[in-house]
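Lab notebook, bench 4. Still working through the backlog of constructs that have no structural model yet. Next entry is a single chain of 138 residues. Request: give me the structure tokens for it.
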Amino acid sequence: MQKAVARWSGQKVKFEIRANSGHAADVDEPAAFGDDEGMRPTEMLLGALGGCTGINAVLLLKKFKQPFKSLDVEVEGDQEKEWPHAFTEIRIDFKIGWDGKHDKQLVESALDMAVNKYCPVDATLSQGAKIKFKRSDA
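Model written out:
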């Protein structure tokens, strides 16, 4: 089971997100709610999707012996105007720098699998997950 803890900093709406791995990131909102000292949670969601699909793309491109030298994964999304501002569409753009001749079909297959077969973040967003909550007094 994966776990992350979001701990309020005591300042406006800034939180530190700490994962079981020990890594941490800050999330915040711009003024008037926050001090803009971290990523917004929605940006973190897009970043998680980019990181997840990117990791799988690198592994698959290497497996398929495709000569890439760089990979940027740009993820952008459109949100509803009204609360809760859910994403209505998310787009992933793989920008690949090449270091030699590559097989277009193998690359397309690798990217398709990176998104649609191996990325748990994409699967969760695409297929949905039941979210439950509870309250515990500290």
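Notes after review: The chain is about 30% helix and 30% strand. The chain has two domains: 1-39, 40-129. Flag for follow-up if needed.
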